[in-house]
Design goal:
Number of helices: 7
CATH architecture of the largest domain: Up-down Bundle
CATH class of the largest domain: Mainly Alpha
Radius of gyration: 20 Å
CATH superfamily of the largest domain: HscB, C-terminal domain
Oligomer: single chain
Number of domains: 2
Order of helices and strands: HHHHHHH
Distance between the termini: 50 Å
Helix content: over 70%
């Protein structure tokens, strides 16, 4: 079954994440292995629900999935060849490596979110125009920035852990 149909959502890049989560929780309750007579089948269905939720909950994987529905998702694992983009990406990575405060990370997160928002707009245009090569290129870029966003979150967690750690703490 189509992931969008599974969660009763339109097959679009812009979806209501609150509805996605609510429908995910309903389906997980419905197909929970502890409530099923056929536990193996329920585990398979629950796994499919989890995978579909994971794909639709992130804009980069949702965009890639939309391409797969059109059979236009080939070569998404290719490298990005846009030199200007790669230069900007390198600068962002360097900023992340050098970030030493939560303020620097918040600022970087804001910049990365602006990139993501811009790429989302670009993907919608490419998808609507059926410019599949550009849409695939945009998905690759979205994947890069989603990974950077995840790395920023991890860096924030590490900084917060370091701030909370004290040698005076009792173990």
């Amino acid at each position: 079954m189509n992931h969008f149909a599974l969660f009763d959502l339109p097959p679009e890049l812009d979806i209501d994440l609150a509805i996605l989560k609510a429908n995910f929780l309903k389906l997980q309750q419905q197909y929970h292995p502890d409530k099923a007579t056929d536990k193996n089948q329920a585990m398979i269905k629950s796994s499919e629900i989890n995978q579909a939720f994971k794909i639709l909950s992130q804009v980069d994987s949702r965009a890639g999935y939309l391409l797969s529905l059109r059979k236009e998702d080939h070569h998404l694992d290719q490298s990005i060849s846009d030199f200007e983009f790669l230069q900007s990406a390198l600068e962002i990575r360097e900023q992340l490596d050098e970030a030493a405060t939560t303020e620097q990370l918040h600022s970087l997160k804001h910049e990365v979110q602006q990139w993501i928002d811009s790429l989302v707009r670009e993907f919608k245009i490419d998808f609507d125009d059926e410019d599949w090569a550009e849409a695939r290129d945009t998905v690759r870029k979205l994947r890069f920035f989603q990974k950077v966003m995840n790395d920023i979150d991890k860096a924030e967690d590490r900084l917060l852990d370091d701030e909370d750690f004290s040698l005076d703490d009792d173990f």
